[in-house]
Amino acid sequence: MKDVLKGNLVTLTEARDGDADYFQAHQWAGGFARNSEWDLATVRSHDSFVKMLANTPADAMMLIIRKQSDDSPLGWIEFDGIELKNQVCELGIGIVDPAERCHGYGTDAINCMLAYAFFEIGLYKVRLGVNGNNDIAVHTYEGVGFKREVVDREALYQDGQWFDKYEYGIMGADWMAAHQDWPQF
User: What is the pTM assigned to this prediction?
Assistant: First the structure.
């Protein structure tokens, strides 16, 4: 059976020594923090990244996205608000270094996490939120198969302008139909 946490380009792993240093050093690189849904009133310290990586809540899981070619960290991917009764969760992802974006790593990591959600956990649906001005992320999510379900009009204020926020969802059956190459149980 295929290891669902190993894609074509990335492997999803536990946090390791040095990961917090990497995230703290790159948090402001190339608009990463600006494109996230973080409240930017707080600059994240090294200790806050250590705590984030070490203290995942019971209804969540966070994995580090690593480049298969050299095992270096690229970012993280997480499920939050996992509801086993309702078979849903929220997905979050961040590729922190702008030089590593647009190479397929995020798409590969998302597909690994969706395989984990649908094949291992048995979820029915995965949801996510994205800032409407984050065109690269929107393109990636739609390319994986997420469907826009909600538009929160003018919910983000940046650079003197208001932008929409979007909520997306993908059903397990839809993702599996488009990814016949993944294992069936």
Answer: 0.87
